[in-house]
Amino acid sequence: MRLALACGRLxxxxxxxxxxxxxxxxxxxxxxxxxxxxxxMTWTLANGFAAICGAFTRSTSDTVEPWQFVxxxxxxxxxxxxxxxxxxxxxxxxxx
Length: 96
Fold this sequence. Notes:
Blueprint: H1 2-6, H2 12-18, H3 21-33, H4 39-55, H5 83-95
Helix pairs in contact: 3-5
């Protein structure tokens, strides 16, 4: 829904119908780097907090990551999302 709002669209289901799997995957990648909507400020602050904490960390084993400051965030996956998984996510959203 955030993507639809960022695109100025009210009907998010129509947007999903228009997106290809590759386009949706690109938006997911973009959102992981630059969150869409109000989440951007949350992640900007989280990056700042992590940088401040990093300045006071004595060892690399005590590293603080930005996601640790975002309520509800989970540790990011290291593996890219497969095209099949993206297709599955689109199918779930369409049925929504």
